[in-house]
Amino acid sequence: MNNAERISAEYQQVMDTLFWKTFIGEIRKRRDMESRFCEVNSEVARNQGALMALDYILGRGESNPPLAERLLEELRKNSQEVK
Fold first, then answer.
1. 56 CA to centre of own chain
2. Which distant-in-sequence residues (6+ apart) come within 8 Å of 31 by Cβ?
3. Is the distance from CB of 72 to CB of 82 less than 8 angstroms?
4. Against a cut of 0.85, is the pTM above it?
5. Are 79 and 3 in contact (CB under 8 A)?
6. Largest separation between any pair of C-alpha atoms in the chain
7. What is the spatial distance between Cα 14 and Cα 35, in angstroms, rounded to a whole number?
8. pLDDT averaged over the chain?
9. Average pLDDT over residues 10-15
10. How many Å apart are CA 16 and CA 22, to the nearest integer?
11. CA dihedral (33, 39, 41, 47) positive or negative
């Protein structure tokens, strides 16, 4: 089993844990809060930056999957290039 396969298997195990669901849930709550702040604050640049960072981690839409999945894809791609 190469590193990409091992990391992918570990990620699948972690995703099924209560810790992971709670962790991602807290990040989503923070994103929702920052989004609301954009609506009420007169200077929204900080909140927009926070939204961008959280969206980078969580992923937004089909063209931007979650960071963990992008990392796995990069590992798979790199392991295939080495062969």
1. 6
2. 51, 54, 55, 58
3. no
4. no
5. yes
6. 54
7. 28
8. 90
9. 94
10. 11
11. positive
Among all chains, which residue has been given the structure tokens 């990409």?
4
**Whole-number Cα distances in Å, 22 to 11, 39, 79, 80:** 15, 26, 31, 33
The CA distance from 76 to 6, in Å, is 11
| Res. 33: pLDDT tops 80 | yes
Please work out, in degrees rounded to the nearest 5, the angle formed at the alpha carbon of residue 21 by the alpha carbons of 44 and 38: 10
16 SS3 class: coil
Per residue, the 3-state secondary structure of 26-68, as one string, reads HHHHHHHHHHHHHHHCCCCHHHHHHHHHHHHHHCCCCCCCCHH
